[in-house]
Amino acid sequence: MIFGLVSLFAGYFRQEDVVVMAQVVGYGAYQTTVALGGLVAKSFITAEVDDDSMRYRLLDVARVYATERLDQEPIAYEARHHFARFVLTTVKRFGQDRASRFLAAPEVAQYKRRLDDLRDALGWCFGAGDAAALGIEITGASIALWDQFSLIAEQQAQVDRALNHSGSSGCPASQLVPLAMSKAWSLTHRRISDEARDTWLLAVRLTEEANDINLRLRALWGRALYLIVSANYNEALECLSEYRQIAQTHENGLALPDGERLIAMAEVYLGKLSDARDKLEELWRGLTKGEARSGVPRYQIEPYVVIQNHRPMVAWLMGRPDQAAVMVEEAVDYIGRAGHTQAQSYVLLTGAIPISLWNGDFEAFERYTEHLGANIASDVTSWTPGYRFFRALNRHLRNKDDALHEMRTAIDDIRSSGFHSNLPMYLGMLASAHLQQGSLVEAERAVEEALALQARTHEGYSLPDLMRAQAMVLGARGRQDLAEAKLGDALEKCVQMSALSLKLRVACDLAELWAAQGRYNKVLELLAPIYGAFSEGYATKDLVRASALIAATRRTVNCG
Predict the structure, then answer these.
(1) Is 360 left (phi over 0), alpha (psi -120 to 50) or beta?
(2) H or E element: which one contains 50?
(3) With contact defined as beta carbons under 8 Å apart, do 124 and 147 qualify?
(4) Do 530 and 507 contact (CB within 8 A), yes or no?
(5) For residues 307 and 305, what is the distance between their CA atoms, to the nearest angstrom?
(6) Is 499 helix (H, G, I), strand (E, B) or coil?
(7) Exposure winner among 109, 204, 328, 413, fewest CB in 10 A?
(8) Rounded-to-integer distance, Cα 328 and Cα 318, Å
(9) What phi and psi, each to the nearest 5 degrees, are found at residue 51?
């Protein structure tokens, strides 16, 4: 009988595994050991030493024969059901071990050998075994295992199958929540916006039925991140407000920093820079002090990544361009050394590349863009449209004829995905590129598209640059009066956001317009105090430009 039971193992197994399976026929440890030894003696099973213990494997031909014999036994169903329960216990133990301690490589390898057993157990549960409820439970418990080995496609397929069987399974909502969240994360990473939105809502609804605070926090956190990357910033803040209310009274507020991190992220995009800066600095101090983490967001971008990507962005916007460049370079290097290619690509695309471009550091811009391209070649496909945009922008800077078409194609792909964070910035850069080539109609189209999107998303940090582009179009059409008014409005937006770097950029445009009209005193009155507010970054593009404008204007005034 042991011969048939061990045929259920797809690969290697240990004596203690056989002891568990032998419970089906009422064998104790001694009887099991004797039976196992007999099978080894008859060469049906191979035995070898592995990590100071014995492991066994049924020969392939013997396994086929043993399986056929088992299927003819009255205990066949009970044996397979017992095996599925054994697999459930195994994957649950992995999840608990992974969450509570660091697993050494040999331990991880032992679990990896169970993947074929897992596949067989799930195939039986959702097939001949007609045990959907058990299959759903195993699937939910296995998510951590698939995640460990980056088996994304397999995880997606298994989770979809489990959810498809959930209607008739009678499973409690607490078992369905992890499946819904797994699917929602997968859709989010694959940039399938509409289905991701619906699946996150399903996950949150299921947590209400499950009445599980930890699951609810995880679902709210995941939905909030989805809302941020899809540029629904205010809706994300509403979601995070609920998260904060729950987290404040749960486990002494241990989960609060996870929510505050996303609140700061949304505030950066909305242009609430002072509020975001204060949160990010507090979070950074807590991170460097090694404060306890909640582990609420299972698939979260690491706290270091979110904090150290947005701290430099805020630093640049608020007038610290050198500091921003140093911080973002440190983040790229640190994450690269840790081997987190996906997270590094996120920082490259949303932090390092834009900051290097804003600073006019084209060597760094090209280096970071090539680095992102290398990551994407290693199958980090989530960021491909953004990479294609900046690759094309680099070609534009090198005067390549087909660059603007490639930039537009990349933007269209981003728009069709539904993940619109930073998209107004991309459209503003496209408009500027068209202006440089004298394509007013295309520039105006890009500006209008960007402003319409910005009005919907309220992405505040990008608005001053869009208003600058709009003023450039107006000026190119000979409407200097409207261009001046638009730049004045843009200056007010910069003041409201405390965005000193953007204020300088807008002021340079306005100063050039005034200088062309001979209004030199206004140039100095506007530009000199703003330039004087900086304490660093004097070699960056905008400060070099401002310095040159101030010097040229002073020479003109003195000569006059």
Answers:
(1) left
(2) strand 45-50
(3) no
(4) yes
(5) 6
(6) coil
(7) 109
(8) 15
(9) 55, 50
Long-range Cβ contacts of 385-391 (<8 Å, 24+ apart): 385/410, 385/411, 385/413, 385/414, 385/417, 386/349, 386/410, 386/414, 386/422, 386/426, 387/349, 388/413, 389/414, 389/426, 390/349, 390/353, 390/357, 390/365
CA nearest 198: which of 218, 180, 174?
180
The helix or strand, by DSSP H or E, that contains position 316, with its residue range, turns out to be helix 303-317
Summarised one tens digit per residue, pLDDT across range 350-402 is 999 999 999 999 999 999 999 999 998 876 567 899 999 999 999 999 988 78
Beta-bridge partner residues of 497: none
| pLDDT tens digits for range 138-178 | 999 999 999 888 788 899 999 999 999 988 778 899 999 99
Residues 223 and 200 sit within 8 Å (Cβ to Cβ): yes
The long-range contacts involving 433-441, CB below 8 angstroms and separated by at least 24 positions, are 433/393, 433/396, 433/403, 433/404, 433/407, 434/404, 435/469, 435/472, 435/473, 435/476, 436/396, 437/404, 439/404, 440/473, 440/476, 440/477
Tell me, letter by letter, the H, E, C secondary structure of 501-546.
HHHHHHHHHHHHHHHHCCCHHHHHHHHHHHHHCCCCCCCCHHHHHH
In terms of DSSP H, where are the helices of 230-272? 233-248, 256-270
Contact 500, 533 (CB under 8 A): yes
CB atoms within 10 A of CB 116: 13
Three-state DSSP class for residue 53: strand
Poorest-confidence range of 318-327, 377-386, 542-551?
377-386
Cα 323 from chain centroid (whole Å):
25
Q: Is the dihedral of CA 56, 60, 61, 64 positive or negative?
A: positive
CA distance 221 to 223: 5
Residues 6+ apart with CB under 8 A from 125: 84, 131, 132, 134, 135, 138
User: Closest Cα to residue 275, out of 318, 232, 228?
Assistant: 318
Taking a C-beta distance cutoff of 8 angstroms, is the pair 311, 338 a contact? no
Residue with tokens 């319409």: 452
Cβ–Cβ contacts within 10 Å for residue 234, how many? 12
Decide: 87 and 114 in contact? Cβ < 8 Å: yes
Q: For residue 191, what pLDDT is reported?
A: 75
Residue-level pLDDT at 291: 53
* 8 Å CB contact between 354 and 541: no
CA torsion angle 352 358 360 361 (round to 10): -10
Task: Render pLDDT for 110-120 as a digit per residue (tens, 0 to 9).
Answer: 899 999 999 99
Binning pLDDT at 50, 70 and 90, where does residue 300 land?
very low
Question: What digits encode the pLDDT tens for the residues 86-107?
Answer: 999 999 999 998 888 887 888 8
> How much is the pTM?
0.86
